[in-house]
Amino acid sequence: MKNIKVLIIDDSAFMRKLITDFLSEDSRIEVIGTARNGEEGLKKIEQYKPDVVTLDIEMPVMNGLDCLKQIMQRFPVPVIMLSSTTKVNADNTILAMRYGAFDFIAKPSGPISLDLVKIKQELIEKIKAANAANIKELASTSINIKKSVKKQIEYSNIELESKQRIIMQKDHIPSIICIGTSTGGPMALQKVVEKLPKEINAIILIVQHMPAKFTKSLANRLNQLSEISVKEAEDGEKLKKGVAYIAPGGYHLSVDHKNHGLTALITETPPVNGHRPSVDVLFESISQVIGYSKVAVIMTGMGSDGAKGVQLLKIDASVKVIAESEETAIVYGMPKAAISTKLVDEVKPINKIAETILKYV
Questions:
Q1: Which residues contact residue 125 at a Cβ distance below 8 angstroms, ignoring those fewer than 6 apart?
Q2: How many CA within 13 A on the CB side of residue 322?
Q3: Is 121 left (phi over 0), alpha (psi -120 to 50) or beta?
Q4: Among 87, 295, 299, 321, which residue's beta carbon has the most beta carbons within 10 A?
Q5: Residue 121, C-beta contacts closer than 8 angstroms, at least 6 positions apart
Q6: CA-to-CA distance for 178 and 281, rounded, in angstroms?
Q7: Residues paired with residue 132 on neighbouring β-strands, in sequence order
Q8: Which residues in 251-282 are b (16+ Cβ under 10 Å) and which e?
Q9: Alpha carbon distance 313, 289 (integer Å)
Q10: SS3 assignment, position 30
Q11: Greatest alpha-carbon span in the chain
């Protein structure tokens, strides 16, 4: 098996050395070069043709966002962003996902993190996953920033029929749409959530594997681009139809259905499948809710989070489960694990998932 060739782009000599040392400990990874800024990085990508690039956001001469746009336009390669957890950097990291970055890692303690060892294993695992990523789909997701306004949606015939049915049947049984995703998820979520009509008779609950402070930026961005409202879930809030609630990074999201209606439960119980938030935790919680129709969706991501939850949901045969197809998944791990349960009702490319959801709502 050939080595994974990695180029490191970071303006800090200390960070370049630290990352190089970490990665060099893994026999499958070969650091073939480093660069001090985006401009130098572009030249070295063209020269060395790496398999994966790690890219800092804050750099002089050419910053990480501008460099990423050039990479995806000129010579697409999987890029892992390194970001500190300030609000500005969290917002920029979400933009990086829209520009086609494979994933990101939050630096533990700012631009120069002396304790970078905390994310060593995560970085190694993501580099290996990036090397196997669907680079064609990554490149196709690289899009320009749009103005921060609610989108005017163009609906397919199926979506229009569903929208009209929603308007006429608002008093019919409400639905819960629960979505699980991980690596590659921000762009996948955008392609689904922005197509859901604001009149939808459903509560939407989302688990996106992401650390604390980044999910709020993701929710704000999706809210700007969608007809429905999108927000980070808050503990104890009453859940409303026509709103998508994203699990806060670092916390599990489940629901309380003992009282009238549903309320959000945000907890810090131990990680499940190595994740907090966990898709399985959300799906298990939804499996216990009665009086609602349910649609579960599993999209791009590493690992198998959500597969056990699908099994619990499908104890009720009326629950519909949709998985993203291999052709569009940036990482096929989570959808593949869900499909392997043989309980998935529909396997669809990302551009067909929203209309498939609406078919069942």
A1: 302
A2: 25
A3: alpha
A4: 299
A5: none
A6: 11
A7: none
A8: bbbbbbbeeeebbbbbeeeeebbebbbbbbbb
A9: 10
A10: strand
A11: 62
Name 321's Cβ contacts closer than 8 Å, sequence gap at least 6: 295, 296, 297, 298, 310, 313, 314, 338, 343, 344, 345, 346
pTM across the whole model: 0.87
Strands (DSSP E) contained in 52-201 are: 52-56, 79-83, 103-106, 175-181
The length of the chain is 361
Tell me the C-alpha distance between 81 and 61, whole Å.
17
CA distance 65 to 123: 19
User: pLDDT 10s per residue in the chain (361 long)?
Assistant: 789 999 999 998 988 999 999 999 999 999 999 999 999 999 999 999 999 999 998 888 888 999 999 999 999 999 999 887 667 778 888 999 989 999 998 877 655 555 677 888 999 999 999 999 888 787 776 654 443 344 444 445 545 555 555 444 445 688 999 999 999 999 999 999 999 999 999 999 999 999 888 999 999 999 999 999 999 999 999 999 999 999 999 999 999 987 678 999 999 999 998 999 999 999 999 999 999 999 999 999 999 999 999 999 999 999 999 999 999 999 999 999 999 999 999 999 999 999 999 999 9
The single residue listed with the structure tokens 């920029």 is: 92
Please check whether residue 252 is in contact with residue 280, taking contact to mean a CB–CB distance below 8 angstroms.
no
Distance of CA 226 to the CA centre of its chain: 16
Token pair belonging to 355? 């209309």
Residues 6+ apart with CB under 8 A from 306: 180, 279, 280, 283, 296, 298, 334, 337, 338
